[in-house]
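#random but structural
TW: two for the price of one
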Amino acid sequence: METPDSRRFIPTVRLDVVLLLLAAIGGSVDVMSYFQFHTFTANMTGNTILLGISKGDGKLSSSMHSLTALMGFISGTFLGAFIVEKKEARWTSYITLSLTIETIIIAAFSALSFFYTASESSYLIYLTIALSAIAMGMQSATIRYLKIPGIVTTFITGTITSIGMSVVQGMRKGFKKIEDDTLETPGAKNLEQRIELQAMVLLAYGATAIITGWIEYHGSKFLPALPLILMISVLVMSSRFKDLKV
């Protein structure tokens, strides 16, 4: 029998799983992009560094890859923000719409990556990079809209920083439990829960990156399907989030 507490807990757990899957997508896409194009399409900090290095070395093609990723990511954040910024403090159909569009873009990226070879035309290369970066930009804007404290799924530096800040805050103020039964927002967690989720997001990103790198080295031709499978799983998990307060 479901209680009010269990009804709140179940969506929260599902939302946590969705966040972990999104972090895994970021890790897999970044590794795939780096192996294929020597650029990052989810981590713009690393991508900007690569852009600076390639410019300094005079490698025009590498710098154009990084610049394409940067412009694609920025475009994706604008697109994602345009879709989800409707000011309702809940999981709206607009968030689902944003994730659905991201899934379609990831599907196109996976299809192009599946048939990618080093001899591909520059147009297809830039299109693949742009699609990946746009998808990651949309994901960043969508997750930011949820305003879950300290959770970032596309650039892990922000998550590591949040973990450090949460730990210090907990050491100074104590890891106090939230006793208010009126709190229904998944973001309103006590510090132990928040740090645990942040750590799991970090682990999901890193573990998937390691697995993706291992598969890349061993030459599995089915690797491009990984981010698409994860993205479809996100849509399935979030299909019952309608009107969930966030």
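TW: number two ↓
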Amino acid sequence: MARDRLRASPNPQLFRLGNPTIPKFGVDGLYEKTDQRRWYTKCPRCNGWQPLDWLENYVHRDKSGRYIPRDKEAFKIKKPENFDLRPVCRFCHRPFNQWEAKKSQWVAENRDSVKRGYRISRLNVLNQNIWELYGEWVEAQSSSMLLMTFYNSVLGMAYIPEGSYITDDMINKACIGDPMDEVGGEKYKNEMVSMGVDVGSLLNFVVSVNRTNAAGERIRECVAAGTVMTFDQLERLIRNYHANVVVVDVRPETRKVKELRAKFIGSIETVVYMCQFHRSAKVGAVSYGIKVDGRSGLITVDRTQVLDATLDELNNGLRVFPEDVCSVKDFAKQLKAPKRIMKDGDDNFIWTKGPPDHYRFADAYDRIAADQLSGGGSYEELDLNDD
């Protein structure tokens, strides 16, 4: 109702305040659309204007990989509690005290926007003990969550620990397969073919051939990815690629997914499963909390755990994409969309929801299908409600 209450005001103002968490989400996404004001300080030594940045002005890595203060005088002080760490100018490389600065002011870094946005950090607080922050920073190097907290709460910056999401580099390293096969054909009859389908306004699909490497590990090699508009088109794709196991997102088109499954009941070549997410209390007892009911054709999995499993595949070189897969519209973008973060007020990780992520989940369903090729999973009777 906030916007509605402002409509009659001759001078409407709406303030949104918060600590950022991950890039482009929440308050960080709002800040990106503003003029992005930061507090600039003028160096009293060389008159260079600059925003105070933790890595630019306060710490750097030495040859051993440790983070040490840029202020070299800090090592000469016998009682560091009586001497706080000073920022070091990025231009003249000399330390200075903030209160000695001749001038400080807000500077807009994105002047194309008419909306005002401000980012402030503990580094801008004159009575902040920087030695304490340095201790927190050193401690955080052994914990991705402490590091995220430091960036979010101390520096006022969005941050995602490395390895918590799919990156362009990971995708590029995996793009070593043959060019995409947009036709299918008889050559897939003797292959172990899995297929995953995410259901939305379009049906996003991923088709993979599953092989074993010299170490006995399964390689899930994507051969095709794309979208179709109807379940009839999806049925033709399944038959064209001779898919052995297909896993389809059961929501929101439960009736149509059931009808698709019914068309393959009794088939020697193909089995179609429906999939829904359900949080699993235990991690590791069964792979990503999977439960399979062969009679109803329903599979339930833990959303977080199955996305973790597909991320691990990429990290371990067990997922291969066609060399030209990034030519598929939004494929890479949607694969990168979810981010792995810790749930507020909990010690559990979750994958974020937000930007379109259909190919990410089509790939996850394909992973589930691939596991069913070898009869994986625990089995029990489950009920599927249409409502």
